[in-house]
Amino acid sequence: MPVTAYDLTGRTAFVTGAASGIGRATALLLADAGATVHCADLAEKGLTETRTAIENAGGTAHTHLVDVSDRAAVHTAMAAAVSASGPPHVLAAVAGIMHSSPVLETRDEDLDRVMAVNFKGVLYACQAAARSMIDAGVPGSIITMASGAVDTANPGLLCYGAAKAAVVQLTRTLAAELGRHAIRVNAVAPGWVRTPMTDRHDVQSQRQAEAAMARISPLGRVGEPADIAHAVLHLASDASSFTTGQILRPNGGVAMPW
């Protein structure tokens, strides 16, 4: 397969969670591969920074201030993207939040908030993108963001892990439903990645957590946003044209499920 298989010139991508972390790295890399990128997030300042970085590198970007847990807002943003650049060829549904609490202390509002963003937000983006692709007859690639949490039991991460497990099931079901439309659907399940989401402790605690994760990785390190963005690019591109319904696990070898 020639390296041109990774060329996204002339294609449009819609990326949620694009204001920071994995979402920003994904938006930057897809733009570098030639795509016109529509960046969606709630953080306006971060969105502007992402768009500016893309434009300074010679790419084309648009921004959409949107709460992914709001179905109507997601569909409005997708409609605006289609109006500006045509139907998406790529969706990267990256937006997510973190919550930690023991199972016995988990409240309804904790579970509802995480499921609203981490599962429903992905569902709404997938629905909006898929409908646009089907209506236009555009072969496409939908990439969801799962997590290494679906492969291990992590104390305190019930809400997060359950939402990401739901994303995996959504991915597989949607892949089975959309294959006849030449739309591929795959998930990326990162291990520990150094992002604003994981950087929620004091510096010392953060370093200790990263060191612990690095020790159990065969590669001896934690991930960077760019590591995950490259996995997304692979799934977005023609290099993965025979891949659908799969979970790609860039996790440093921490989990090796059969």
Count of discrete domains = 1
The third-level CATH topology is: Rossmann fold
Number of strands: 7
Quote the beta fraction: 5-15%
List the secondary-structure elements in sequence, H or E.
EHEHEHEHEHEHHE
- What sort of overall outline do the alpha carbons produce when their principal axes are compared? globular
Overall mean pLDDT stands at 93
Protein name: NAD(P)-dependent dehydrogenase, short-chain alcohol dehydrogenase family
Pfam family, one: adh_short_C2
GO molecular function: oxidoreductase activity
Family: Belongs to the short-chain dehydrogenases/reductases (SDR) family.
Task: Give me some keywords for this one.
258 residues; alpha/beta; Rossmann fold; seven-stranded parallel sheet; 7 strands; 45% helix; 14% strand; NAD(P)-bd_dom_sf; KR_dom; NAD; Sc_DH/Rdtase_CS; NAD(P)-dependent dehydrogenase, short-chain alcohol dehydrogenase family
Topology:
Blueprint: E1 12-16, H1 21-32, E2 36-41, H2 44-56, E3 60-65, H3 71-85, E4 90-93, H4 108-136, E5 140-145, H5 158-178, E6 183-188, H6 203-215, H7 225-236, E7 247-248
Parallel strand pairs: 1-2, 1-4, 2-3, 4-5, 5-6, 6-7
Could you characterize what this model shows?
The protein is of the alpha/beta class and 258 residues long. The protein contains seven helices and seven strands. The chain has helices at residues 21-32, 44-56, 71-85, 108-136, 158-178, 203-215, 225-236; strands at residues 12-16, 36-41, 60-65, 90-93, 140-145, 183-188, 247-248. Strands 3-2-1-4-5-6-7 form a seven-stranded parallel beta sheet, with helices on both faces. α2 (44-56) links the parallel β2 and β3 (60-65). α1 runs parallel beside α2 (44-56). The longest helix is centred in the middle third of the chain and has 29 residues, at 108-136. The chain is globular.
